Amino acid sequence: MKALITGITGQDGSYLADLLLAKGYKVFGMVRRSSTETFERIAHIRDKVTLVQADLLDSTSLVHMLRDVGPDEVYNLAAQSFVPTSWSQPVLTGEFTGIGALRVLEAVREVCPKARFYQASSSEMYGKVREVPQTELTPFHPRSPYAVAKTFGHYITVNYRESYDLFAVSGILFNHESPRRGREFVTRKITDGVARIKLGLATELRLGTLDAQRDWGFAGDYVKAMWAMLQQDQPEDYVIATGRTHSVKEFLEIAFDHASLHWQDYVVQDPQFMRPAEVDQLVGDATKAREKLGWEPEVSFENLVRMMVDADIELLQNQR
Length: 320
Ligand code: NAP
Ligand code: F7E
What we know:
Layout: E1 2-6, H1 11-22, E2 26-31, E3 50-53, H2 59-69, E4 73-76, H3 83-88, H4 90-111, E5 116-122, H5 145-164, E6 167-173, E7 176-177, H6 186-198, E8 205-207, E9 213-214, E10 217-218, H7 219-229, E11 238-240, E12 246-247, H8 248-258, E13 267-269, H9 287-293, H10 301-319
Parallel strand pairs: 1-2, 1-4, 2-3, 4-5, 5-6, 6-11, 7-10, 8-13
Antiparallel strand pairs: 9-12
Helix pairs in contact: 1-7, 2-4, 4-5, 6-8, 6-10, 8-10
The structure holds NADP nicotinamide-adenine-dinucleotide phosphate and ligand F7E.
């Protein structure tokens, strides 16, 4: 089996590549041209995957890539994925995160319509939530240009499935984190901050709202659900979540406590990290995934936080 992953250099792309290699797939990864390589997360599997240059902005490059690879499965994980950047660069976010998904779908339809397609949809689409917890049937109310773009990506995936009979599915994934998470996201920002403070490299950690709540899981668990969705008899959409919600404050408490520190001594609230619009109580109901995919999250919230703190301390110690 051949799988193509867009966004292989990102958090999820790297975990999905690990999973598919372990299952015996030949793994191809789409990378965009850059003056410096951004292959840190796939350094450990660099000789096991084949990288192909293409860009979500360039339809021709996507068509050529699919012709060259001839994949059985396509996972569209590439996107501008940081919510605050979507306010400062809304057009670019719409192009990458929304229309980019359409370009990949169009290329699949033209080149390899029998390939199975996965779209990385997001709990951010629920935004100003209509009900708690959220299911596959909960209406969307996106609250950022990122979320609006993801909502387009979601519906165009549903539309291509219904219009062209593609095996196209959308995974509505709630926040998932890991030691490979980008450092600007709040979880990694905190665990990196704890490690720096612990090692005497920083004296404070500047954050936005501490009351925000998220349903946080482990990325390594969530990529298993992506794969499982493409192995079903019917293409359907699934919510992937832990069903538990925690505040930024709770994350801080566990992270600092794990390093024997008190967060109140170091955390400073800074208005520059507040958002023009926040989402409400995001908490997912993954009953359908549990029943149809047999999927369950394995790493608890507490263990996720501790895993990330340990990894960041080790990383910084090794750099010394
Ligand atoms: P990430 O770490 O930010 O990775 C994004 C990937 O997209 C990177 O490989 C990046 O490449 C690539 N990319 C961006 N623009 C591109 C372009 N124009 N052409 C080609 N590649 C491009 O994101 P992630 O956390 O792994 O998330 C994976 C996907 O799931 C994203 O679509 C995200 O929006 C979605 N999602 C994430 C979560 C979550 O909690 N992590 C939840 C729901 C949905 P470079 O390395 O070159 O920048
Ligand atoms: O923010 C609050 C912030 O940036 C979480 C992406 O993967 O998950 C991610 O989006 C919360 C927000 O993730 C800071 O206001 C406080 O309420 O870690 P985040 P996100 O916006 O939830 C979804 C599912 C995706 O699809 C996205 O691609 O934390 N917060 N202080 C802060 N957030 C950040 N980044 N930085 C702070 O200093």
